[in-house]
Design goal:
The structure holds two protein chains of two kinds.
Chain A: E1 5-7, E2 10-13, E3 19-24, E4 31-38, E5 42-50, E6 53-56, E7 65-71, E8 74-79, E9 88-95, E10 105-106, E11 110-114
Parallel strand pairs in A: 2-11
Antiparallel strand pairs in A: 1-3, 3-8, 4-5, 4-9, 5-6, 7-8, 9-10, 9-11
Chain B: E1 3-5, E2 10-14, E3 19-21, E4 24-26, E5 33-38, E6 45-49, E7 60-61, E8 72-74, E9 83-92, E10 95-98, E11 102-107
The chains are: A mainly beta, B mainly beta.
Chain lengths: ~120, ~110
Amino acid sequence: DAGVIQSPRHEVTEMGQEVTLRCKPISGHNSLFWYRQTMMRGLELLIYFNNNVPIDDSGMPEDRFSAKMPNASFSTLKIQPSEPRDSAVYFCASSPPGQSNQPQHFGDGTRLSIL
Amino acid sequence: AQRVTQPEKLLSVFKGAPVELKCNYSYSGSPELFWYVQYSRQRLQLLLRHISRESIKGFTADLNKGETSFHLKKPFAQEEDSAMYYCALREYGNKLVFGAGTILRVKS
């Protein structure tokens, strides 16, 4: 099992450009999470999907951020237009169905740099 | 709002010394707390959860409702314990609220 797969691993782009981050959760997992990690704020939850439906997007910073989950095996996080303050590591995580105390399984993250 | 506070950004100890990574929380219900760890070049992963009352890699954490704390402890630190440690609180369903994280550096 390759675990949660994120792409790209690194992204460097100029401000104003559109950025798309991709995530493939572990097969059979029905919850998917997008997080942003920075030194100042630690790990912040951006959005949480359950059975492909967004449950909580209260952490999405602004309208420039959007996330989709068109099917159980794929999700995207898009930033348009990007700004330097969006530079961070973005993690995707998934967890299996069942009792609510299932652990979250994290991907390797995408290190995003906006110049 | 539910909050998790990890007051130390960096904790540096010598090998063999005791370790305590602090975590305090605010939650109106019955809390479920976790510690996640990220070793260098590895993925963030679950270390332990309070409901299991387990010891993993020599680490333990006791939930203290009176002090609203869930500190992570190990009696004798090892160099391989050097990592980033996150305390997390289950808010509802599968949603976790994470603290800002503490970097543990174990020096030889």
